[in-house]
Specification:
Helix content: over 70%
Structural class: mainly alpha
Order of helices and strands: HHHEEHHHHHH
Number of domains: 2
Largest sheet: 2 strands, antiparallel
Radius of gyration: 19 Å
Number of strands: 2
CATH architecture of the largest domain: Up-down Bundle
Oligomer: single chain
Shape: globular
CATH superfamily of the largest domain: GntR ligand-binding domain-like
Length: 233
């Protein structure tokens, strides 16, 4: 029982810090106030330390002896390289989805995409910063649904790690503005992916998804330039 409770405290601390990083609340190089985390979650030192060590092992934070820990800095080339590889993975998963998804799963994917489109009603201006965290969650839900539709347990497990890295790199590049760059364009591309999968067109699904991810490279870098993204070479 004790072990289970201890593990749940570590998980709570891990999820809290991870969300701050992936939502862009903690910028690259920012120090993570572990005392504040302990106070907020009402936990002892050890669960928070274990959570930080886990995040460090996953490449999200750096632990500096006798100093503390901070969000890892990344370089622009890292972002570009990852997104190009990720595009290939996502394209293949979309092609699998087109061939293997049930009708119910396709309908669910369409509903998720529809929900994303409702984030910025055309009749009412919405602040990009305000919708960014919601868009990140729904964007991840969309891609996770595609992964589920591929019906490949081993690749599904890999997809979780890749999506975390995708969110992290975009958060590092854009901070509070993550996912706020041309969300309408991303949504239109999602709709094209849904259409290809609905039509059971594996080739089109793969090409459309790859193009979607590759386009995100340009959107991220364009926004990063505007936000004076620092290349940590």
């Amino acid at each position: 029982m004790y072990g289970t409770r201890s593990e749940s405290l570590v998980e709570a601390a891990y999820n809290h810090i991870r969300a701050l990083i992936l939502d862009g609340a903690l910028k690259p190089g920012a120090r993570i106030d572990l005392g504040e985390v302990r106070k907020l979650l009402e936990v002892s030192h050890q669960p928070v330390r274990d959570a930080v060590n886990r995040l460090a092992a996953e490449g999200f934070v750096e632990v500096i002896p006798q100093v503390g820990c901070r969000v890892r800095r990344i370089g622009r080339q890292d972002v570009e390289d990852f997104l190009e590889v990720f595009a290939g993975f996502e394209g293949r998963m979309a092609s699998f989805a087109a061939l293997r998804a049930s009708d119910a799963q396709i309908l669910e994917l369409a509903q998720i995409s529809k929900g994303i489109g409702k984030l910025w009603p055309r009749s009412k201006p919405v602040s990009p910063v305000a919708i960014a965290p919601k868009f990140r969650v729904l964007n991840r839900t969309f891609h996770t649904a595609v992964h589920d539709m591929a019906h490949s347990p081993s690749l599904k497990q890999l997809s979780v790690m890749l999506m975390d890295r995708y969110d992290f790199y975009i958060a590092c590049a854009l901070g509070e503005m993550l996912y706020a760059t041309r969300p309408d364009a991303a949504h239109e591309e999602h709709e094209q992916v849904v259409l290809a999968i609905t039509e059971r067109d594996a080739k089109s699904a793969r090409a459309t998804m790859e193009k979607h991810i590759l386009n995100s490279i340009e959107r991220v870098l364009e926004a990063a330039r505007r936000l004076s993204f620092e290349d940590a070479g």
